[in-house]
Amino acid sequence: MILKGKPVIDSLNMELKKESERLRLSGAAPVLAIVRVGDNADDMAYERNAEKCCAAAGVDVKKYIFPADVGNEEVLSAVREISADGNIHGALILRPLPPQIDDRAVCRALAPEKDVDGITEYSMAGLYSDKCVGFAPCTAEACICMLKHYGVKTSGKRAVVVGRSFVVGKPAAMMLLHENATVTVCHTKTHGLADICREADILIVAAGHAKLIGEGFFSPGQTIIDVGINIDESGNICGDVDFDKACGTAAAVTPVPGGIGRVTTAVLAKHVIEACARSVQK
User: Fold this and answer.
1) Tens of pLDDT along 132-153?
2) What is the pLDDT of residues 181-193, one digit of tens each?
3) At what angle do helices 169-178 and 138-149 cross, to 10 degrees?
4) Structural domain span for residue 175
5) How many CB atoms lie within 10 A of CB 74?
């Protein structure tokens, strides 16, 4: 089975649109603030995708765009303004920021309840303590959404996560633990990586190396979530998993592109709506 992202997005948006309309009837319109410094092509592409997903889910967007040479204090001031504005429910700060900007200070200036992309220490603490403080990183949660949408059972299953970043690997491992999976976290320096991967019922790969997981890494019945986005030697987009080799053995695998990528921005919209609902409850 090819686990495509579009059905997951369509299903999410259907529910999100209903919740957004309910919130608007109560007088609270979900709003996402996007902070971008400079004109990096990847940032601008992600921004466009985020706007598209927000529109589909009924979330309004307010932009804070700065030139590449903007000063640190100007960006900090904008983030503080977002944190204090009761009409803004979440913020997407496109990173990495230029070297003149203090990234840590920017993250700390963002109110935890508006951290819809899981970039603050408060969100990480909330994730690891299983408390509703901030939100999980969107890509990590997109992996869980994908598994749930396609009915992949996690409870009691052996899950292997290849990658240890704070953006995907570590939070995805923690979320799988919350779903009662037994989790092993690996990385590119792990000895016997292929042997460990073959033991997995669920394999999530976010190592950032094109086709790192290939022949000899798979076993029948596996579900594989490929988070990687790379350019291969032919100039084509590919994942961290050798898709063709995986299809010959595994039970289910996500494609790249067309898999996790756009689900991530749908989860971003979901978080904004959840943040809005929390603010109404308060």
Assistant:
1) 778 999 999 999 999 999 999 9
2) 999 999 999 999 9
3) 40
4) 138-261
5) 13
